[in-house]
Design goal:
Layout lengths: L1 H13 L6 H18 L3 H7 L3 H13 L1 H32 L3 H21 L1 H8 L1 H25 L2 H34 L5 H30 L4 H19 L9 H22 L1
Helix pairs in contact: 3-12, 4-10, 4-12, 5-9, 5-10, 5-11, 6-9, 7-8, 7-9, 8-9, 8-11
């Protein structure tokens, strides 16, 4: 309760005050006039893509665009790997290092602190200097090395040394690699999509990620039952190695906007569906 209260106070302090009712009405009227004047341009297309028909049209358009389909495939595979392995990671910490609930809580705080520091001072710099594709491949390679190194060292080191390696080496390396790969994939996706078709492409990405969220827990549960929690690092190393090979083969070596014809037509279809829905409502 105290945390929620502090969060609410922080939001009230930091957010700018809401405009008066008259200002909101004027802004709404202005937006409506802009939509009417622009017709079927990308602003309205992005709004129309939020509907069910627009989202399905967006997915069909994205799948038939070769470059965008490749990036979506890597995105989907990465989502499945991350969410499936997430079901094993907590059991791994409990079984491998016999951590208590309090110690698991401290590990969660340690990960949060690492995330703030890495995103503030490391992740963006790496992606800018290496480029999205190379940063993504390097991050996946670092994950593979970290997981296999932990697998080998945990068997040869004492329990205390293995835990220290896990907390101060494995977790930071894997966290940094995870943030770099996530940012690299997001930036890469935005670069292969034309700006006017971004709303349609984001709708397609949302469908893909939602589907992965349904499938991944079942895969993770099957892996956990078959392998057990202690085999998490081995399974994670193999899964990330497969993901690295997929990304190296599937991702385009040279970035550029995908052809906007199919996505543009999907935007147009979404706008038409939205307009028909509005007419029926009237």
């Amino acid at each position: 309760v105290a945390l929620y209260a502090a969060d609410a106070i922080w939001i009230l302090v930091m957010l700018p005050p809401s405009p008066p009712a008259s200002g909101r009405s004027h802004s709404a009227a202005k937006r409506t006039h802009t939509h009417d004047a622009e017709g079927r341009r990308s602003v309205e297309g992005s709004h129309g893509a939020e509907g069910s028909h627009g989202a399905l049209a967006a997915l069909r358009a994205a799948v038939t665009d070769r470059r965008l389909a490749r990036v979506l495939t890597v995105q989907a595979a990465a989502a499945v790997v991350a969410r499936a392995l997430g079901a094993m990671s907590q059991f791994y910490e409990q079984e491998m290092y016999t951590l208590s609930d309090e110690q698991l809580g401290f590990l969660g705080t340690w990960r949060g602190v690492l995330g703030i520091c890495l995103q503030a001072a490391f992740v963006g710099t790496v992606v800018r200097r290496l480029g999205e594709r190379r940063a993504l491949l390097a991050a996946l390679g670092a994950k593979v090395v970290a997981h296999f190194a932990e697998t080998l060292l945990s068997r040869s080191l004492s329990s205390g040394a293995a835990l220290a390696f896990y907390v101060f080496v494995a977790i930071p390396v894997r966290s940094a690699a995870g943030y770099v790969s996530t940012l690299g994939m997001k930036s890469l996706y935005s670069q292969v999509v034309p700006a006017r078709s971004m709303g349609t492409a984001l709708a397609a990405l949302d469908i893909v990620q939602s589907t992965c969220g349904v499938v991944a827990p079942a895969i993770g549960g099957a892996m956990l039952q078959k392998l057990g929690g202690k085999q998490y690092t081995t399974a994670a190393g193999v899964a990330n190695l497969c993901l690295l090979l997929l990304a190296a083969v599937a991702l385009p070596a040279e970035l550029g906007a995908a052809s906007s014809g199919k996505l543009g037509r999907a935007n147009g279809a979404a706008v038409e569906a939205d307009a028909q829905t509005k007419k029926k409502g009237e």
